Amino acid sequence: NSGQRSTVRVPEGGEYRVVLSDGTKVWINSGSELTFPMNFEKGERVVELKGEAYFDVTKSKEWPFIVRTCRSSVKVLGTSFNVCSYEEDSLEQVTLEQGGVEVKHHDETYLLHPGEQFELDTTNEEIEVKPVNVKLYTSWIDGMFRFHNMPLDLLTVKLERWYDVEIFYQNPELKQKRFFGIMKRQTRLQEVLDVIAKAGDVHFDVNGRVVLVRD
Predict the structure, then answer these.
(1) What is the CA radius of gyration of the chain?
(2) pTM value?
(3) Phi, psi at 6, each rounded to 5°
(4) Digit-coded pLDDT (tens) for 134-168
(5) What residues have CB less than 8 Å from 142, skipping those under 6 apart?
(6) What is each CA distance from 21 to 9, 26, 133, 148, 199, in whole angstroms?
(7) I need a surface site. Which of 36, 119, 143, 183 has the fewest CB within 10 A?
(8) Are 47 and 66 spatial neighbours (Cβ–Cβ below 8 Å)?
(9) pLDDT in tens, 66-116
(10) Which residues contact 165 (CB under 8 A, 6 or more apart)?
C-alpha cells in the first residue's frame, strides 16, 4: 500500500539520516519528527516536519517536493535547504543552500534564492527574507555548532536539545548576551559551557540534568 506513512522521531541528543523513496536525503536533528509516505505517488511529494531537518531533494520538475511545518509549507523542485521549526520556539527559519524554494505562510508566498533565509517571528508574525551565512544554519549536519552573534537564550535552547538538559537563568538579562564560536557537537557539555563562560563572562552551575546560568 503506497498510502502508508511512516514517522521518524529523533530523541533529544540524537540525529538521524533517512533516504526517501525518491532518493531525497534528509538529516533530522535532535528533538524532531518527520512524517513521510513509504512511496511517493505521482504528483506532489509531501512530508511533515516538527523540529529541524536538512533536505537534499532529488530534482523533479513534475513532482514538487513540499515540507509542511506547523506554520508554513516549503515547496521545491530540487534543491538543498534547512528548515528549523520547533513548535516551542518563537522563530521559524528556512535557509536555502542551493536551488530555489517557495515558502507559503497563510496566503503569502516568499521566493528564496541561494544564500537567503526566510525568518518568521511568531511573537509578532513579522517575516523577513534576508541574506545569511548558510553554513551557520546547516553545519549541524557536519557535526558542528556554529554561532555568529547568537543570543545566549537561542544558543542554550540548542544545547538543551542536543545534550538533553534543562537550562534556567538566574537573571533574564543574561539571555541577550551574544556569542561567536565554532565547536564540535561531540564535545562534552561541560567543555562547551566552559568555552561559553570564558567568552561571555557568565557562569554555569551544573547539577545532573539541570544547568543554572548566573552572573
Answers:
(1) 18
(2) 0.86
(3) -120, 145
(4) 998 999 999 988 888 888 888 898 899 899 999 99
(5) none
(6) 18, 11, 31, 36, 45
(7) 143
(8) yes
(9) 999 999 999 998 899 999 999 888 889 999 999 999 999 999 999 999 999
(10) 159, 189, 209, 210, 211
141: DSSP letter: G
Backbone angles phi, psi at 94, to 5 degrees: -115, 120
Rounded Cα gap, residues 159 and 154, in angstroms = 9
Residues 6+ apart with CB under 8 A from 80: 54, 55, 56, 57, 97, 98, 99
- Say if CB 12 and CB 162 are below 8 A apart: yes
Distance, CA of 197 to CA of 178 (rounded, Å): 12
| In contact, 13 and 163? CB cutoff 8 Å | yes
* Dist. CA 100–CA 137, nearest whole Å: 17
Strand positions, DSSP E, the chain: 5-10, 16-19, 25-28, 32-37, 45-56, 65-68, 73-76, 80-85, 91-98, 101-105, 108-112, 116-121, 126-131, 144-151, 166-169, 178-184, 203-207, 210-214
73: Cα separation from own chain's centroid: 15
The three three-digit cell numbers of residue 13, written as one number: 541528543
C-beta of residue 156 within 8 angstroms of C-beta of residue 150: no
Q: What is the dihedral of CA 115, 69, 80, 19, to 10 degrees?
A: 160
